[in-house]
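Thread: quick sanity check before group meeting

JM: Hey all, I'm pulling together slides for Thursday and realized we never actually wrote out the predicted structure for the chain we discussed last week. Dropping the sequence here so it's in one place. If anyone has concerns about the input, flag it before I start.
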Amino acid sequence: VPVSTVNRSCADLKCYMVLFEVEKTAIGSICFLAGPFTFLENALVLGVIAATAALRQRPSYLFIGSLALADVFASCFFTTSFLDFHLFHRLDGPIAYLFKLGGVTMAFTGSVGSLLLTALDRYLCIHQASSYKVVLTRRRALLALLALWSATILISFLPLMGWRCPTGLSPPCSRLFPYIDHRYLACWVSFILVLLSLILSAYALILWRANRHESSMTGLQGAPTGGQARMRLDIRLARTLGLILLIMVGCWLPTLSFMLADVSVQLTHAQQRAFAFCSTMCLVNSAVNPLLYALRCRELRVALMRLLGGLSEGLGCCQRHVGVDSTTTLPLGEGNSCSAHSESEAPRLVSCRPNTVSEMVGKQQLDMTGK
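JM (edit): ok, ran it. Output follows.
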């Protein structure tokens, strides 16, 4: 079939299996590498949080655990479904296909939703420093996660529950996903775009507050001396958040763009193949998330090292770290402070202890050492 040919009709799922052999090899390699890696690192994060009592009590780490769980689902559902369909050409019926697609949709929707909860947690940590522990309790965090996953499951399996294309595989059905109604696809893409916009807004406000706070401290304390060689914390924060947003937008924007195009025009085979490649970037995003949100947190790394030390000692290995019980409470400070952040992020400026930002500015008590 010529590359420019538009799909005008489809008798079975084969009209969606448009990859050439070289494309199958490239995309299959990405899935075979990124899938297991994504599963292992996110399962590691989940295991550390589940095995450490101190982390399980913190709303910040509950949100990170939710993100890791969603990315574990993504590594399983997306990798198996994608390879099964595009590489091995499995021809499922409507029920089986929509169930698999629902699992993939649930994983990625839960991942983006968890990113939003993490961003809101960091926003509250900066903008509601004095009342953070009152505003975001563990109970409220669990309720937020329950609401997120309930909405995610409902939205993801709507096609399986009946909201599917009335013409089966023929136009005006989606040319990216069999049996999917254009209206459902448009609603889902709009929902994800709203979540991404809220994430961008939350991090923009965090950066704005950090920049204003750093400028206030510079005015009160004077210009840094030559011995203070550290980069301004708001600049380090900008670099960190810029990296987060660049990866998130870079991985999601191409995929969502193809979905929006699918709603309005009939895609060619070449565009279908391009979408297949872009969709693997969502899996790459799930692989990068633990490196950006979890493993850069000092407390989680400490918990990981202690857990590994305990396991090594249990196996009779000689380790530098003394083994501890997996449920031992780590010295992580107050039980509900927001500290699930990397050293270069704004919550290192404000630890969400009883002092507000303005009080710390007034007293010139900003922690400028924290590494």
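AS: nice. The mean pLDDT is 78. The first helix runs from residue 21 to 51.
JM: adding both to the slides.
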